[in-house]
Structures are given as structure tokens and as C-alpha cells.
Amino acid sequence: MGKIPEVSSLGARIAELQARLDDEWGWHSWHAAFGRYRSFVKSPVFEISFASLIVVNALVMALDVQVVGIDIGAKLNYASYQPTAVTAPWARLLVDRMDLFFGIAFTAEILLKCAALGFGFLKDPWNWIDTGIVCCWYVDVADSALIPVNASLLRLLRLLRLLRLLRLVRVIKAFDSLYLITTALKGSALILTWACVLLLFLQVLAALLLNQVLYAFYFTNERFPISERHQVFAYFGTFTRSMLSMFEITLADFPEICRLLTENVSEWFMLVCIVHKLIIGFAVVSVINGVFIEETFRVASSDNFVMMRAKEKTSKIHEMKMMQLFLQADSDQDGLVSREEWRALLSHPAVQLWIGSMDLDVEDSDGLYDLILAEDKDRGLTMDGLIRGIDRLKGTAKSYDVQLLLRQVGSLAANVDKLNTKLTSSKYQGASVLQNLAGPAEDIGKEGHACQLMRGAAWC
């Protein structure tokens, strides 16, 4: 038993020595610095910086394609194209230097993320895509003959980085509309699939029916000129041609194909084309568009991020309007709106109409002032009090407010019932006096009946 204090003191000395070593080697400061570095790598600033590089990289790739296209046009003697080596000798050098810069920059991005995230780097699929694209860049720079793929296709893979810009939609508030579009498209994937299946089935049915009619009565009929049959065959000669023509009739150029069938085959095809356009090109496509619109509103009303952003935007707009209203009302600029200043403000018809649009009663200005001032009676009506008060009062009563009121009324009715029970069951003389003062026992004032009604309403 005497050795226990020695062991505990030895542990304390070891811990003290460990703390001294940590201080001498700066482990605590190193951990703090690494934490700040890791937070920076995960921050929106880091993502936005490299997203900007991705956009610039796409522009440089567009310049590269433009230079290559001009050189090919010069070799083909197209128009007055001249080689860029003559007209813009700096273009190729600029593209090569920028390509080298972007390759090094994106390599540094991957290394920074690996150092900061560790094994967590492997959990994000975008990190795998970025690593693969950077590896393709190194293969292209070293020797593109190592893999049996065209070097131009390797460069096109870098365009996949543009999809990373969608990750910034949740960070930048200016992209709220874009986030809503992308979220609605993601939520509409199943609807898009079934819409494509429906349209494909209808177009296959129409294409097969039209093919069979033309095979039987037109293509092999020598009575029709061969030039006209060639024209019709170009649109409906095979199943694939017919499918393309049916989609063109439904979604694109309707008159040209309808005129071709009417003039070269028979005027009865005018009726066929019009019926197809009305049923599939108008009715079916309109229903599909309506379903997509409904899905967009459903996503907008159910997505948590969209609802939070909408609520935040509404709150800021309300706060800005109330600040303007307060500055207009505070004529003496003392930071408080008195009752007289409030009356003077509500005397303007424009202010009455604006506040009335919030479902507030502007006829009783003093009553509205007291309701807004409910939480700040001691200090007076401040700007914050005006913002909170109007926000609390505007609009119609919600179900939450009604239920809260019913609960409070029910609690009050229960307390009155308990008090009444105590008074009627008490044997003290004071209780008898109170009961006599309250009135006859038959409840002429119907207080008990009113209490029961309140309790019943609260229970409902």
C-alpha cells in the first residue's frame, strides 16, 4: 500500500517531462498550424481559387482548338485562312506555357489535398477524377505513344473538371438559381427516363406503321417518279431514318416532312401528320413539360438547402424594409420611435397601404404600436424591436399559433377548475364566504359551463 503514492508521483513526473518535450519541440504549435492548414484546404476559398483556374484552363483549351482549326483550314485552303505561325506566332507558345502552368497547379492541388486529408482524400470521387486527369496530362507531356489513345482525347478529358464547378453552387449565394436547376434535374432523372421510354415507344410504333405503308404502296410502285421516291426514301427508307424523321416531326421541323409526304405520296398524309403533331407533338410533350415543371416546384419546396436560402433571403429583405421604415419614422433621430412619431408615420396613405399588405390592421395605430412594443415596453420602440414585432405580427394566424393558444386556454381552464374545486371542497369559513360572494350554486353566470367549453375546445 505504501508504493502507490510513489507510482502516482512517477506518472506525474513522466507527464510533466512529456509536456516539456512537447513545448520544446513545438508539437502543440505544429498541431495548431496543421489544423489551420487543413481548414484552409477544406474552405470555400481554396475550392473557388482552383475552380477559377479550371475556368481559365477551359478558355486556354478553347484557344488551342481555335489555333489548331485555323491551321487545318489553311492546309485545306479554306477561304483565306493562313497558318497561325505566320499570323499569330505567339499563340502556340502561349498555349504550351499555359498548359504547363495548369498541369503544375493541379498537381500541387492534389498534393495539398493529400497532405491535408490523408486517407480521407480517397473518399471523394472527384479526387480520383482529378488524379486521373493529371496522370493523363503527364502521359501526354512525356510520351503520348505509351497508350493507344489520341492525345487530343486526353486533352478533352480535362473538360471533366468543369463539372467540379457544380460543387461551388452550394457555397456561393449568387448561384441559388443554378443550384435549384441542377437539383431539379437530379430529382427529375426518373421522370426523364420514363418520358424517354414513352416517347420512344410512340415513335417506334409510328415509324413502323409508316414504313409498312410506304413499302407496300410507294417505294416499289413504278408509277411514281424515281427522283421523288429518292426524296421520300431519304426520310423514311429505313427504320433508323424513319425514327429520326418522326422525332423531327414531333420536336423540330414539322412542315417540311409533311409537305414532302403530301406532295410526293398522297394528300391523305396531311391528315396523318396533323393528327401525329396534335397528339404526340402537342398533347404528350405538353404533359411531359408540365410534369417537369411540377417536379421543379416540388424540389424547390422540399429541398432543405433551398428552403434555408429562401428563408434567409426573405428575412434579410424584411429586415432591410423595416430599417427603412424605422429611419423614416424616427424624425428626431434619437434611436427610438415614440407613439407620436408612429401616429405621424401611419397617417400617410402609402404607409398604410404598405403595412396593410402584411395583413396588419393600420386603423388602430395605438393598438398596433402596443403589440409591436410588447417586448420592449421599458426601453421604447427600437429598430430591433420593430423588426421582431412586425415579423411576429404580419401574416394570418398559423395552425401553430392556434394550437398554442388552445393549449394556453386549456391550461388556464384546468387551473380555474382546480381553484374552483378547492374553494368548493374547503371547510374553512373563508371559502364559504367566497362561495357566497361568488353567487348561487346553480352557476347562474355559466362560468363552469364556459370553463368546460374552453377545456373541450383545447382538447379538440
TrEMBL record:
According to the record, the signal peptide region is none
Q: Does the keyword Membrane apply?
A: yes
Q: What is this protein called?
A: EF-hand domain-containing protein
Indicate how the chain sits in the lipid bilayer: Multi-pass membrane protein
- PROSITE patterns per UniProt: EF_HAND_1, EF_HAND_2
List residues of the EF-hand domain. 317-352
Gene Ontology cellular-component annotations: voltage-gated calcium channel complex
Q: Where in the cell is it found?
A: Membrane
Q: Which organism does this record belong to?
A: Symbiodinium natans
- The organism's superkingdom is given as Eukaryota
Which spans are transmembrane here?
Answer: 45-63, 100-122, 191-220, 232-252, 268-292
An MF annotation (GO) of this entry: high voltage-gated calcium channel activity
Q: Which UniProt keywords apply?
A: Calcium, Calcium channel, Calcium transport, Glycoprotein, Ion channel, Ion transport, Membrane, Phosphoprotein, Transmembrane, Transmembrane helix, Transport, Voltage-gated channel
GO process terms (BP): calcium ion import across plasma membrane
